[in-house]
Design goal:
heterodimer, A: mainly alpha, 77% helix, 0% strand, B: two-stranded antiparallel ribbon
Chain lengths: 256, 447
């Protein structure tokens, strides 16, 4: 594999997220801290779910292939549920933090709104999830080898990169949706996030039949993107105006 | 070989401001009593407290990032070197401080040897710290000064020479000794000037990061595995004890420095503020802040107020590199330098005072954070996942420590929380998460 594969996959997977980070998060120290704390929360959820999976594997017969695959699927689903639980915990923490910031600010409003925190928290979750999925693959792509020489799919790196990109985006939008659901007590929004996460992770069980995993994931990503955009106060008028490069007359919501 | 063991105390400006507040209260009290309006006084005090707390938190996030960036940079340098230059992962013997080998037949023997190694290393550190405290107490400033100069000479010339040599070997770069001598000479001399005298802030920060990285690389190379993890664990416990216990050596050092209105070992503190005074780099931000504080907060140039502010500044974030102290000698001229600072036009500083308030971190913390992350990247089976997990864990630990600092407003050790998180995440990620992620990657499942 070549340097071209390495750089190509890196930028496919992390390019948009890097752009989001550079343009929206890097300027504000508070957002950087929220991002890293979000990454930390995701990491803790991964740790706990790996612990559960590890115990299950050690307690079972290592030679039984279907059982091991079944345990892995169970591990994936449990991990998804745990990630969403930790997203909820992070929401609780950020709520407390906002109360603290409001209490100590000069003009009674916090320097960062809950919608912005939702976006940054989602991005933190997504970046960490993407990093853990992709970094080892990228480093392997730098080394020697031929992809799929034993009959596996030759598109492994490329599809992994695309899947990582869609997961990062999805985590960002899920963050916005989830926090909005928590804020406005709309439990169905939170349930929708959990359900779509399960669907997306479940669709990866179709791999290497990539049309079964990438296509639904991207469709869901566009759907959640539109939903999150609407919840953040956007409308088609704003979108068209921004695409044409005009200033919108109505001021955008703080969540943008 | 001289060894730099950095133990770290974090102290920020809110402690000084709290003392300023108490001073203000003491100053205001007689006035309000004569006025017969005790409520004004409490209101004033409460407002000042709230204002100060809000200032602390408002600039809290900025201070955290001012520390995140250099810590990240140091770790990146160490990890990049470990991954590319094989010299630092090759076993070429051990330090004399860790005489027991880990190439033993049984696991039990290996565990015993590593415990003994860690015990010897920690005793050496304790002895050196106590020696430093004794030297400082009995004002043997020249000895400490010389000790620090020798160790920075060693780092800047010898270790960087070895580092450069290994990098050239890795990339197969042909280099003649004359050019090399010129490079090392320039690097070393500019480093000595920047660190021990004065120089551009960014350059000084860069040099401090570089010497921390070099020291961390030495530890990663010469400490065997189990010994390294044990030493990290024990040293964070020691840091906790030494800084928080009333008879801890580091606490005694801080208090002695506060009594004498001196800063401690400023050559080994990473500072993020501007440094302009004539003799001493580290004294400047304090002196400036004293001057600007006296102009901003206290209209009456109160001698008592200044001295109280000095006492707080005296304990400002010392870094406990035992061999180094380059400022204790010249510090005896503090009254003159303070007068010189107050004679300086401080108006520009007064308006920028909140921004100028920087944060300081001891180099020992840089070193041990980098040792943890470097060891994780060198020896973990999970490799980059483990490195990333340790990195995030250390940053979050640092964030929490700074939060505790803002809450408790007193000197705190910075190693325990970060190193604990780092160790937990290293072992958990390496043993639990890595098999899981491996299986997921094999089947191309995504969570």
């Amino acid at each position: 594999m070549t340097l071209a594969v390495f750089f190509g996959c890196t930028f496919i997977a992390f390019g948009p997220a890097l752009g989001l980070f550079l343009f929206t998060v890097l300027r504000d120290p508070l957002r950087i801290i929220i991002l890293i704390a979000g990454a930390f929360f995701w990491l803790v959820s991964l740790l706990l779910s790996s612990l559960v999976w590890f115990i299950a594997v050690k307690a079972s017969d290592p030679g039984d292939e279907p059982l091991q695959k079944g345990l892995l699927i169970f591990g994936v689903l449990f991990s998804v549920l745990l990630q969403e639980a930790f997203r909820f915990l992070y929401y609780k923490l950020l709520r407390k933090a906002i109360e603290g910031l409001v209490a100590l600010s000069e003009d009674g409003c916090s320097p960062i709104s809950i919608q912005q925190m939702a976006y940054v928290a989602g991005l933190g979750f997504g970046l960490m999830s993407g990093a853990f999925s992709m970094i080892n693959l990228l480093v392997d792509a730098l080394g020697p080898g031929t992809v799929g020489i034993h009959g596996d799919s030759q598109l492994y790196f490329l599809t992994s990169a695309f899947m990582t990109m869609v997961m990062i985006f999805l985590h960002t939008f899920w963050g916005i949706l989830f926090f909005h659901g928590c804020e406005t007590q709309r439990w169905w929004e939170m349930a929708a996030v959990i359900l779509t996460h399960l669907i997306v992770s479940g669709s990866t069980f179709w791999n290497p039949l990539y049309v079964g995993s990438l296509v639904p994931s991207y469709l869901l990503m566009f759907a959640t993107a539109a939903w999150a955009y609407v919840l953040s106060g956007g409308c088609t008028q704003n979108l068209l105006q921004s695409l044409r490069g005009q200033q919108s007359e109505t001021s955008p919501q703080p969540g943008s | 070989m001289l060894m730099e063991m950095g133990l770290f105390i974090l102290q920020n400006d809110s402690e000084r401001r709290r003392h300023d507040n108490s001073e203000r209260r003491r100053n205001d009290n007689p006035e309000s009593e004569t006025n017969g309006q005790p409520q004004n006084r409490t209101q004033q005090v409460v407002e000042q407290d709230e204002e100060d707390e809000e200032l602390t938190l408002k600039y809290g996030a900025k201070h955290v990032i001012m520390l995140f960036a250099p810590v990240t940079l140091c770790m990146v340098v160490v990890v990049a070197t470990i991954k590319s230059v094989s010299f630092y992962t090759r076993k070429d013997g051990q330090l004399i401080y860790t005489p027991f080998t880990e190439d033993t037949d049984t696991v039990g023997q290996r565990a015993l040897n590593s415990i003994l190694n860690a015990a010897i290393m920690i005793s050496v550190i304790i002895v050196m710290t106590i020696l430093l405290v004794v030297l400082y107490k009995y004002r043997c400033y020249k000895v400490i000064h010389g000790w620090l100069i020798i160790s920075s000479l060693l780092l800047l010339f010898f270790f960087s020479f070895i580092y450069l040599g290994e990098v050239f070997k890795t990339y197969n770069v042909a280099m003649d000794y004359i050019t090399l001598a010129l490079m090392i000479w320039n690097f070393g001399v500019v480093g000595m000037i920047c660190i021990h005298w004065k120089g551009p802030l960014r350059l000084q920060q860069a040099y401090l990061i570089m010497i921390s990285a070099l020291m961390a690389l030495v530890f990663i190379k010469y400490l065997p595995e189990w010994t390294a993890w044990l030493i990290l664990a024990v040293i964070s416990v020691y840091d906790l004890v030494a800084v928080l216990c009333p008879k801890g050596p580091l606490r005694m050092l801080v208090e002695t420095a506060q009594e004498r209105n001196e800063t401690l070992f400023p050559a080994l503190i990473y500072s993020s503020t501007m440094i302009w005074l004539v003799n001493m780099a580290e004294e400047d931000p304090e002196a400036q802040r004293k001057a600007s504080k006296s102009s901003t907060y206290d209209k009456q140039a109160n001698q008592i107020q200044n001295e109280d502010a000095d006492m707080d500044d005296g304990g400002f974030n010392p870094e406990w590199e035992q061999q180094r102290d380059s400022r204790i000698g010249p510090l005896e001229s503090t009254p003159e330098s303070r007068a010189a600072v107050q004679a300086l036009p401080s108006n520009s500083q007064a308006s920028e005072d909140p921004e100028e308030r920087g944060v300081k971190l001891g180099l020992g913390d840089f070193i041990f954070y980098s040792v943890l992350v470097g060891k994780a990247s060198a020896t973990a089976s999970g490799d980059w996942n483990t490195t990333l997990a340790c990195f995030v864990a250390i940053l979050i630990g640092l964030c929490l420590t700074l939060l505790l600092l803002a809450i408790f407003k007193k000197a705190l050790p910075a190693l325990p929380i970060s190193i604990t998180f780092g160790l937990v995440f290293y072992f958990a990620t390496d043993n639990l998460v890595q098999p899981f992620m491996d299986q997921l990657a094999f089947h191309q499942f995504y969570i």
